[in-house]
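Page 42, continued from yesterday. The earlier attempt failed because a stray header line got pasted into the input along with the sequence. Redoing it now with the clean sequence only.
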Amino acid sequence: MMGTKPQGEAPQSKRGPSAPLIEIARNGLVESSHLASFALADSEGKLIASFGDPELQTFMRSSAKPFQAMPTLAAGAADAAGFTSEEVALMCASHAGTDRHAALAAGMLLKIGCSAEDLRCGVHLPYDPSTAEALIRKGLEPDALRNNCSGKHSGMLALAVHLDAPLDTYLEPDHPVQKMILENFSQMSGLPLDAIRVGTDGCSAPNFAIPLRNAAMAYARLMAPENLPAAAAEAARRVVAAMTGHPVLVSGEGRFDTRLMRASAGRLLSKGGAEGYQCVGIPADSLGYKHAALGLALKILDGDLGHRAGSVATLEVLGRIGALRREERTDLARFDARVLLNLAGLHTGEIRITPGFVLDSLDHGIHTA
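This time it went through. Structure tokens are written below.
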């Protein structure tokens, strides 16, 4: 197993508190701002750069999905079910609930002898507006297949079937599936089990709160898994290949994770989570100069319910360290710092990085603009 620095209890904050990073200005006056913290770390937990409090302990929400999918692959359950790379991508997804997404989830369940009734993730309208409108026009109610987490839950059920474990309690923390997921998460984040705070996610599955630095380390290990045990390393490689190879399945057309992975031609791995959480996996030597694989974990403190601040902050950090090329960032302009228009098309202000923002680089080998 890789070195697990930092070890022991989740570390207390050693740096400054979260600070304003994104602001919205109108006619030159700051109208509102978003507090943020982030950590950029390598696979050994070395903090490469940061802003605010890199030791902030907070729930990863859906950014944890790649690690929740890994045990289904490592245990052989995905292969036993005959899951394709597209279906592996859906296991890691917060998908938009389109017909394609729902059909893939239904196919996964069929392969393991289950159905939508076995899913315990709940029901909501599809995130994709046109799909939601089509259902409403037809007078149809969405089912659990449209839930953005249906792929994750289908993967958990596949592991339960493979283990011959109960299906109706697959979300309970003491269920074999959830124990395997937590153990894998401990290995990837470099924290012992008792340092990981477990809560209940929006889809009713267990979720994990860890410091931002450990989350960044987990994403670095996902991108550079060679020092993990063989089964976990292969699972990590398959997760990365599936997510970056099928970005529309991980999120959806026009959504940030999909667009970032497409713009970078699959070089970067992106996975957001609720309440303003965002992670990016950066492979080795992708910064334009020699450097190890890195992970970025970012938290917008107010939850970023308008989905406007997290993408601006993420693109700024990736740009400053050289992980995102100029033409790639241009392709992502709708998610970046930009002017704001009202309904009449008039320029009313801008959303921007707080002037004077400095990336706190702790590694003199990293190049910052």
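Notes: The longest strand covers residues 29-42.
Reminder to self: strip header lines before submitting.
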